[in-house]
Amino acid sequence: MALVFKCGKAYPILLMTITIINPKNNYSLHLVGYNLVDIDGNAFPIIHGVPRITYQENYTQNFGVQWNKFDKTQLDREGDGLDLSRKRFFAETHWDKEDLSEKDILEVGSGAGRFSKVVLEHTKGNLYSVDYSDAVTANMKNNGHIAPDRFHLLQASIYELPFPDSSFDKVFCFGVLQHTPDFDASIKALIQKAKPGGEIAVDFYPIKGWWTKINTKYLLRPITKRMSHDKLLHMIEANVDWLIKAHFVLHRVGLGVFARFLPVCNIKESFPQSLTASELREWTILDTFDQYSPQHDHPQRMANVVKMFEKHGARVTFAGVESYDDGGAAYVVRAVRIHA
Predict the structure, then answer these.
(1) pLDDT value, residue 268
(2) Counting beta carbons within 10 angstroms of the beta carbon of residue 74, is it exposed (0 to 12), middle (13 to 18) or buried (19 or more)?
(3) Does one domain contain both 194 and 284?
(4) Which residue range is the domain that position 275 belongs to?
(5) DSSP strands (E only) in the chain
(6) Residue 3 has pLDDT above 70, yes or no
(7) Which one of 102, 215, 257, 312 is most buried, counting C-beta atoms within 10 A?
(8) What is the mean pLDDT of residues 249-260?
(9) Which pLDDT value is given to residue 6?
(10) How far is CA 254 from the centre of its chain?
(11) pLDDT single digits (tens) 29-67
């Protein structure tokens, strides 16, 4: 819900086209003081301008830590030519920015708002964005001022989205699905919120072969995902410099295949080449923490993801790899909901 704070009070500044509901009973929610409340009196607090339609403690706590610490790391910035998020968004969706004008768009898993920023700055669409973690605090700080009449941000679970089914013209979910407990149920939840004829675009970590999980990431995750976030982050920051050097040395001498056994993210193939040394270090810390801290990491085979979409009432229009400038690429499925 777009809110503005004046004299310590919250005021809605737009009558939204999509109803906000309590996902447990489907009753409409209305602003009462600092809460959204349904007819039965169930109340959800508004904290830092964001309605929290969820429990504060959940499996995504690491992402709240991550995105509030690295809140601006992946945001596109004017003037320095670093617009990876814009390029990735339009490459993966294939949506025309003019066609998005006045459309209702659902973003699931917004993080600190790198793609929220793209939608708000480069289109005239109405963006309804959710994240299950406290990353929404960073997103509101980053983007709440851009187009407050078109930006509606809530904390909510992908499995309990606070909107009626068949509400949205467009639905997208980037960098999220592999970190949810049930990949198939997550796909179903996204499709249900699209209107018949509405488009859905997702990306995900792929299983490329038997060697996918022969990787230090998957060997260490049973330990690292149980560590305190502060301790894990401290370990990464203390070792990141020699890990970056070792990563590039292996690639330089033709042994890049062995870089997968370093406890660091895939720097060479993941980051834009235009990053400065300090930016590269920051992105490496962020992505390495992103690899080792989540409770869930479930890569998928492309064929299986396609079957999930078809099973839940969507027609797949694209399934493959989408590339964008600076060497980035993602495994993407785009689909259209067939019927309600």
Answers:
(1) 85
(2) buried
(3) no
(4) 216-292
(5) 3-6, 9-12, 30-32, 35-37, 43-47, 50-51, 104-108, 126-131, 151-155, 168-173, 194-204, 314-324, 328-337
(6) no
(7) 312
(8) 94
(9) 38
(10) 34
(11) 998 888 999 999 999 999 999 999 987 677 888 887 898
Would you say 25 and 38 are in contact if contact means Cβ atoms under 8 Å apart? yes
Tokens of 177: 């699905």
- Number of domains composing the chain: 2
> What's the number of CA atoms in the CB half-sphere (13 Å) around residue 5?
10
Residues listed for the chain = 340
- DSSP letter at 210 equals T
* Residue 315: count of CB within 10 angstroms of its CB: 10
pTM, full prediction: 0.92
Task: Give CA–CA dist 54/22, Å, rounded.
Answer: 10
Query: What is the residue type of 100?
Result: L
Residue 16: strand, helix, or coil? coil
d(CA 326, CA 17): 37
| Per-chain mean pLDDT for the chain | 91
Q: Are residues 241 and 200 in the same domain?
A: no
97 and 197: one domain? Answer: yes
Q: 277 is written with which tokens?
A: 């040394």
- Token pair 């993801």 is found at 305
Give the number of other Cβ atoms within 10 Å of residue 198's Cβ: 22
What are 70's two structure tokens?
A: 């690295």
169 and 270 fall within a common domain: no
